[in-house]
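User: Before I run my own analysis I want an independent prediction to cross-check against. Here's the chain; please return only the structure tokens and, at the end, one sentence I can use as a sanity check.
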Amino acid sequence: RVHGIDLSARFVDALRSRAAAAGAANVTAEVADVAAPGLAPASFDGAWSRWVLCFVPEPEAVVRAVATTLRPGACFAIHDYVRYDAF
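Assistant: Structure tokens:
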């Protein structure tokens, strides 16, 4: 199961549409704040963040929120940029 979170309803709708078109019934998404997603503690086996931490005002809050939702031994992969001038 894959669950996406974004503050943008447009991005969430796009993910839902693509998942439906691909027949991926195991993909869900919701509009929520990644720093306070309201997800159950220890309910995920892993998390992936792409281009999130460089855009939020408090990246530490996001990391704490994700850590809370992960089961013991789970992995949190972060794909981010910190220096845009390095492109």
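Sanity check: Helices lie at 9-22, 59-69.
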